[in-house]
């Protein structure tokens, strides 16, 4: 493996699931001798805490167009054995110019989101951009040496929306890593004086796609019939709006916004139920984290990851998107009568271990190297 050099190219490094996946994979590849590094345009200040001091990251800087120019220069000069793409525009760029400028590099296209979901929800210039991007993908994707999808649903969407690639492989996102238990046990500043009241937790970016407003509306219904608390971890453009909505429903004493936390695991561990209420998800890493903690989960049945992660509802209640009443009912049922016992949740979470995913990534590298 020591002869393999690998670039994981990200358009930007922010606080999100995609970045956590790469940080889980990278050290394991390095441990077996792969010369792997992340190449990105910039690192958001909120995400700096995710990086260890020795994490190999190359920051190219610049705006969107200057980033692509600098990426062009790096790929041409370095000629890495493998280039992993993580965004559709980057994938198209790398494949379009590979023949002329980095012909010896193998291109592995990794798909973390559906193609059709964002396209169907888009309007105006955004929709035109995504349509053009899909048009390019239909002409370029078969040139990739391999395609990795993070779920079967995403893989099926690629085949339907773009093209059926003969070397498409599903590798579930790696979530459960070494030191998981120790991370869960770290002390936190719990916003209430005790743990006697059941706590519902949300973890994620406070953005429209996450529909945290739906959760607050549903929780207000739950609160009218039973004692419960709502804990919201994360930050984003809707933070102010959501705090006002919680105030409107008189939830100030039972709903706490604790902002961004470097590690959500100890907060999840101390909660009773995790809720994901998005209108779309590429995967839903936080669902696996909750199951690994033995915590019950409720999720909207949105495209493309949650149903697959929860095995069609076997490991957590699934509700329709944008349905306040169904979400409230599922939350209340889960607090009163847990759907799955702790041991079975943790057993399911083991399917998303870092070691399992890394062994599959290594298998892809070896297979592509022999082509």
From TrEMBL:
Q: Name one GO molecular function term.
A: glycosyltransferase activity
Glycosyl transferase family domain location is 198-349
Q: Which Pfam families match?
A: Glyco_transf_4, Glycos_transf_1
- GO BP: carbohydrate derivative metabolic process
**Ranges where the Glycosyltransferase subfamily 4-like N-terminal domain occurs:** 16-175
Q: Where do transmembrane segments lie in this chain?
A: none
Q: Which Gene3D superfamilies match?
A: Glycogen Phosphorylase B
**Could you tell me what this protein is called?**
Glycosyltransferase involved in cell wall bisynthesis
User: What is the organism of origin for this protein?
Assistant: Halopseudomonas aestusnigri
């Amino acid at each position: 493996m020591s002869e393999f050099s690998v670039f994981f190219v990200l358009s930007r490094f922010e606080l999100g699931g995609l970045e956590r996946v790469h940080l889980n994979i990278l050290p394991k590849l390095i441990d077996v001798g792969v010369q792997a590094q992340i190449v990105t345009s910039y690192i958001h200040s909120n995400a700096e805490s995710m990086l260890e001091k020795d994490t190999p990251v190359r920051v190219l800087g610049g705006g969107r167009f200057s980033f692509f120019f600098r990426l062009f220069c790096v790929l041409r000069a370095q000629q890495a054995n493998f280039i992993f793409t993580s965004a559709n525009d980057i994938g198209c760029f790398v494949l379009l110019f590979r023949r002329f400028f980095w012909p010896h590099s193998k291109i592995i296209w990794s798909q973390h989101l559906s193609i059709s979901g964002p396209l169907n929800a888009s309007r105006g210039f955004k929709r035109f951009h995504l349509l053009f991007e899909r048009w390019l993908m239909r002409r370029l994707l078969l040139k990739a040496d391999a395609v990795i999808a993070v779920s079967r649903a995403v893989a099926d969407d690629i085949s339907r929306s773009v093209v059926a690639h003969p070397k498409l492989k599903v590798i579930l996102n790696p979530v459960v890593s070494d030191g998981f238990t120790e991370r869960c046990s770290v002390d936190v500043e719990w916003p209430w004086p005790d743990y006697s009241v059941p706590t519902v937790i949300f973890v994620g970016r406070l953005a429209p796609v996450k529909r945290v407003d739906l959760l607050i509306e549903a929780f207000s219904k739950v609160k009218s019939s039973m004692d419960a608390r709502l804990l919201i971890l994360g930050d984003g453009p809707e933070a102010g709006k959501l705090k006002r909505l919680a105030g409107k429903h008189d939830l100030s004493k039972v709903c706490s916004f604790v902002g961004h936390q470097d590690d959500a695991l100890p907060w999840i561990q101390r909660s009773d139920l995790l809720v994901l209420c998005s209108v779309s998800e590429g995967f839903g890493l936080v669902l696996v984290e909750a199951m690994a903690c033995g915590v019950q989960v409720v999720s909207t049945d949105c495209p493309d990851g949650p149903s697959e992660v929860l095995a069609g509802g076997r490991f957590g209640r699934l509700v329709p998107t944008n349905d306040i009443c169904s979400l409230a009912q599922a939350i209340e049922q889960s607090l009163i009568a847990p759907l799955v016992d702790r041991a079975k949740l943790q057993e399911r979470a083991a399917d998303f271990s870092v070691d399992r995913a890394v062994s599959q990534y290594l298998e892809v590298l070896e297979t592509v190297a022999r082509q």
